[in-house]
Structure formats: structure tokens, C-alpha cells
Amino acid sequence: IGASTTPFNSWLFLAGLDTLSLRMERHVQNAQAVAEFLESDPRVSRVLYPGLASHPDHELAAKQMRGFGGMIAFEVAGSAEVARRVAEGTKVFLLAESLGGVESLIGYPPLMSHATMSEEERVARGIPGTMLRMSVGIEDARDLIADLDRALTAAFESAEELALVSA
Would you say 119 and 137 are in contact if contact means Cβ atoms under 8 Å apart? Predict the structure, then answer.
């Protein structure tokens, strides 16, 4: 009646469990490195990741968690258009609404997960047009950071946008 899985899918599930702890360690390490990079970048105005001391619930998360996970939200210091260009400009991070798996994914909530909400509703709930969300995967952290740096550089290509951030 469909209440059980196939033997092959069961085998895949068990094989995945064998490496789950290693994948989660890498997931958390990479997210911490990416969050620290983003927090230090002047093109980023805000980073939401419980592994950063700047997060409002960092102390609580540190008491309750062994690692801080791989989900990061951040806001670019430019316009909503710049945020969209960052999301579309990554090569290692895949643009996707789903935020799960071993690969790194990036999403632009105003046009993806929260597209049915009005701009006013999104902003009232803390989701401005400059926000991006990521699920950091298990690729090499240096590749992930380089990808974001390149996408941010390309998105801020106009001198006017850079001048706004530098001011």
C-alpha cells in the first residue's frame, strides 16, 4: 500500500547514514567560514547565522547546539537589484528555492520562497529585498567564499553602487 520503501532506496538511506556525521561537520565548518567572510565584507550589511557572536541568539544557540548548522541569511549593502544579481551570479552556489542537500544553494526570497507576499509583508517580517538565503554545502570552503566574492564583485559593478557602500 506504499507504506514501505524499496530495498534499493533502503540501501541508499543506510549508505548515507554512514557518512552523515562527516557531512554535517563539513556543512557546519563551511557555513561558519562563509558567515565570517560575509560579516567582514563591506558589501554585506547584515549576516544572520547563530554561529556568529553578532547574532542576537548566539549565546542561546551555543548552549543548545553542538554546531550551528549550514543555513545563512544575509543582506547586501546595495539595492534589491544587486541582491538578485548576486544570487544569479554564483557558479558554485546553485540558485534554488529548496535549501537542502550536500550542494550549496542560494535563494532570493522576494522572487522565490516569499514571492506570494507583498513587499510590505516581507519587510514587516524581516525579509527585505536585499536579503539572500543560503544552504552551505560540503564543497571546499575556499571555493564557496571565492564564488560569493566574485558574485558580489560582479553585482556591484557600477561605481555608483560601490560609492553607496563605501560611504
Answer: no
